[in-house]
Design goal:
alpha/beta; 7 strands; about 525 residues; two-stranded antiparallel ribbon; five-stranded mixed beta sheet
């Protein structure tokens, strides 16, 4: 938990709202607080029928508990993700204890906390950190059942089906799919179903249904088939059929990305391969393999690929790295040790590339924390490499954890300060400054050819989002109005009558994955 706080909190408050998923979730949650409607989910004026209500409930509850309600700041909406990530770290240790022992399980938990993907999800108000906690709660039950030599108590069934219900309410079928794909290979390997007996408890199954089903019934009664068409027909199936929203990539992409997304535990995973193969017939390795391989293969086969999709199997890899990495090092030859040492390099190159980019664009404020984190991570990586060279198995996991923690403690605060990554936020900040100097309480924002959901969060649910091909409607020209216009080229925007061009803000639109040029137009501030 200490490692979790060290890695997750830097940048937690300062990172601006990110496009597109986080902005959609927090704005829809804020509107849920405003309306008090716990069934309907809306983003701006449109129904958001893609994900179940669980994460919106948690974020809305955090906003209400803060005492600020709909005015709660962004970090309040991020608390469920932070808590979900921290609980996930704890649950890795609980899940791994019956599999690999308490010490190795704690090492695996710390390795997961010191990684890039969970650190990012802990700072972003969306589903995946909370989903991971529900999946791990289910896996903790399965691990205990798999390793038990005597029949287990029925209460485990209640824990399992509550975890499944929570996963369904957070992200639909993804969590149950991870659990089902873990159970299926184990049943085939064991040729026995009796170890799953506590899961067949009718009372536990009914409790899970009682938790998960009411919202689905309520949204179906309210909107008919609209939710199912949106969540399955618009969100899920297109991701399976083709790369959605330009996020397509070929099979094997996650394996290539693993050397950064799972760094620095990836170096221990290299060392673990021979030991895992030697122990492949053991129950712990069977469980870890059943957990990681089927879902990973499924993800590689699906065209739509995002870096956080493999997160539910990273705990299995972390437990394998923490347990079998030191075992493999004890017998590793020179070639394997060199390969493990080489696996420490990609994360440092990644950090150095971002540092160079920050310096190149003049973000010196961002460079300072990243430079410090990168320097510490480099020294610790050298110490880890030395431990690998000397076969110092006892130092391997702690040094790897410290290496990852050092880099990512500097990385996320740096990302929050690189202005080039936040062109829309810079434009809105200028609009607020100019509105204040003109005597306006707050600017009225309009997006023209710029429809990123962060603008709804920054400007409110009634913020007009006008297509690029459409003309500005006359009602937009009003006091205290600022228009964010997405320019199509390097030429200055010709303001429509009643508007005045103020400035241009360029940068990388993270959600769209493209370079963005935003012209800020004054369309009604009293002068």
């Amino acid at each position: 938990m200490l490692v979790s706080l060290l890695t997750f909190l830097p940048g937690f408050w300062t990172l601006p709202v990110t496009d597109r998923d986080e902005a959609r979730f927090v704005q829809a949650s804020r509107q849920m607080v405003e309306t008090g409607d716990l069934v309907d989910i809306r983003l701006g004026q449109e129904a958001r029928l893609k994900k179940p209500a669980g994460i919106y409930w948690l974020q809305a509850a955090a906003a209400v508990a803060s005492g600020q309600g709909a005015e709660a700041p962004l970090w309040v909406h991020r608390l469920p993700s932070l808590i979900g990530a921290a609980l996930s770290v704890l649950l890795v240790a609980i899940t791994g204890a019956p599999l690999v022992g308490a010490r190795a399980a704690m090492g695996g938990a710390a390795l997961l906390a010191a990684g890039l993907v969970l650190g990012a999800e802990a700072r972003i108000a969306k589903t995946d950190a909370v989903l991971l906690a529900t999946v791990l709660a289910g896996q903790a039950v399965l691990a205990r059942l798999h390793m038990a030599s005597t029949p287990q108590r029925p209460w485990l069934g209640y824990a399992f089906w509550l975890a499944v219900a929570g996963a369904v309410l957070i992200k639909g079928p993804i969590g149950p799919a991870v659990l089902a794909l873990t159970v299926a290979p184990l049943v085939l390997i064991r040729r026995d179903l009796r170890w799953l007996a506590p899961l067949a408890n009718p009372g536990a199954i009914l409790l899970g249904l009682a938790v998960a089903a009411p919202w689905f019934v309520a949204i179906t009664l309210r909107d008919g088939a609209a939710f199912w068409q949106g969540s399955v027909g618009v969100d899920l199936l297109p991701k399976i059929a083709a790369g959605q929203e330009g996020k397509g990539a070929p099979p094997g992409s996650y394996l290539v990305a693993l050397w950064i997304t799972f760094w620095p535990a990836s170096a221990l995973l290299v060392l673990a391969f021979p030991a895992l193969w030697r122990a492949r017939a053991s129950r712990p390795v069977q469980f870890l393999g059943a957990w990681a391989l089927p879902f990973w293969i499924l993800l590689e086969a699906v065209p739509t690929k995002l870096l956080h999709y493999p997160l539910p199997v990273y705990p299995a890899l972390a437990l394998a790295a923490a347990t079998y990495g030191p075992q493999g090092l004890a017998q590793a030859g020179r070639g394997l040790r060199l390969a493990a040492g080489a696996a420490l390099v990609p994360g440092l190159v990644f950090g150095a590339a971002i540092l160079w980019g920050a310096l190149h664009v003049g973000s010196t404020a961002a460079a300072v924390p990243l430079a410090l984190g990168l320097a510490a991570a480099t020294l610790l990586a050298l110490a880890t490499g030395r431990a690998i060279a000397l076969r110092a198995t006892g130092r391997l996991v702690p040094l790897a954890v410290l290496t990852g923690t050092a880099l990512f403690m500097g990385l996320f605060p740096a990302l929050a300060r690189i202005d080039l990554l936040w062109p829309g936020h810079r434009a809105v900040a200028e609009a607020r400054m100019r509105a204040g100097s003109a005597g306006c309480a707050a600017p009225r924002l309009v997006g023209w050819g710029y429809g990123e959901p962060s603008l709804l969060w920054l400007g409110g649910r009634d913020t007009p989002l006008i297509p690029a091909a459409a003309a500005l409607p006359p009602e937009v020209l009003a006091p205290c109005t600022f228009v964010l216009h997405a320019a199509q080229d390097n030429r200055p925007t010709t303001p429509p009558p009643g508007c005045r061009a103020l400035s241009r803000h360029e940068g990388l639109a993270i959600g769209a994955g493209r370079w963005l040029r935003l012209d800020l137009l004054d369309c009604g501030v009293p002068r």
